[in-house]
Amino acid sequence: VYYTEAINRIDNKLRADVQYNDDGTYEILWDDVAYKAVHGVDQVHPSVADIEAMHTTVKAEMDALAYQGKRQEEYPSIEDVTVALAEKAEGDSTMWDEITAKRQAIKIKYPKG
């Protein structure tokens, strides 16, 4: 999901379409008016190598952050955390201790980077 969104953001800024030829090659068809409106009249179009490098960079950044989405799916709900905090404030830390242990296990399961 993150990678696709990032690529779409890049594509929206490029203001170009890719045309795939029958011989396996491809060309970039620039929308010069839109591109210059976004980036300025004097801005030079990036080369295919520049675009591929940016796609590689974005993919690496998104892959490095993938743990966040995986953790979020398994973390306790905000409602559970709220109840656990309220119970802890009232003197019963059982639920809070369970949530803390669960979060630590998830962090170990999905380490950063």
UniProtKB/TrEMBL annotation:
This is Uncharacterized protein. The lineage of its organism: unclassified sequences, metagenomes, ecological metagenomes.
